Amino acid sequence: MNLVRIIANRKGFTLVELIIGMGLTMLLTSVLVISVANSLTVWQAGKNRSEIEQTARYVLDTMAREIRYANTININSKSSITLTQFSPRTNKVQEKITFRYGSSESKTIYKITDKTASGGGIGTNPLTPAVIKNLEFQAAPAADHNEVTIVLQASGYRGDILEYRSSVRCLNVLFVNE
Predict the structure, then answer these.
(1) What 3-state class would DSSP assign to 114?
(2) Which of 5, 35, 67, 100 would be a feasible disulfide site paired with 80, CB 3.0-4.6 Å?
(3) Boundaries of domain holding 20
């Protein structure tokens, strides 16, 4: 009976019970924080990869559109191509477009538009942020002169190399020089 009164009169927790409760709370909180931190890391990696893929897709689509409708194509080097478009009415040069990979330091692809032949000027526009590792243009084999392959390599979130390829069939091409 005495023991029952002692337990019934107890109104708080013992020190051991408090320490065990705080330890369990800290353990659960740390597990929660670690899982949230890992989720944020995975989300950030996915976001970065998505941005790189979007940039690569934009650059490849821009180049493919210009190559597809070019009249002459000159592959100046592995990382530079010049396209010429003629005016449909006068059959004279309307504009020259050059896509050029900056360098290993700038890591930017530039689109240089020369409209001086038709009374315009020269414009230079960067197409990419500094995520590009390499850009390469390849002409099709001799049997099929009207196709150009674009190979674009970008640096991934963790330093890995992501490669994107696009083959473009030229619709109005007169000739391709390599």
Answers:
(1) strand
(2) 100
(3) 2-41
- Number of domains observed in the structure of the chain: 2
Are 90 and 151 contained in the same domain? yes
Of all helices (H) and strands (E), which one includes residue 61? helix 15-68
Q: What is the pLDDT of residues 117-164, one digit of tens each?
A: 666 677 777 777 667 888 888 887 655 667 888 898 888 777 788 888
* Angle at the Cα of 132 from the Cα atoms of 97 and 40, rounded to 5 degrees: 135
Q: Is residue 30 situated within a structural domain?
A: yes
> How far is it, in rounded angstroms, from Cα 48 to Cα 64?
24
Q: Do 101 and 170 belong to one domain?
A: yes
Residue whose C-alpha is closest to residue 101's, from 127, 70, 121: 127
Q: Which two tokens stand for residue 52?
A: 């790189």
For residue 77, the number of C-alpha atoms closer than 13 Å in the C-beta half-sphere is 9
- Residue 79 near residue 103, CB atoms below 8 Å: no
Phi and psi angles of residue 67, each rounded to the nearest 5 degrees, phi first: -65, -40
pLDDT digits 0-9 by tens, 66-76: 888 888 888 88
Burial class (CB in 10 A: 0-12, 13-18, 19+), 98: middle
Residue 47 lies in a domain: no
Helices (H) and strands (E) in the chain, counts: 2, 9
Structure-token pair, residue 72 = 């002459």
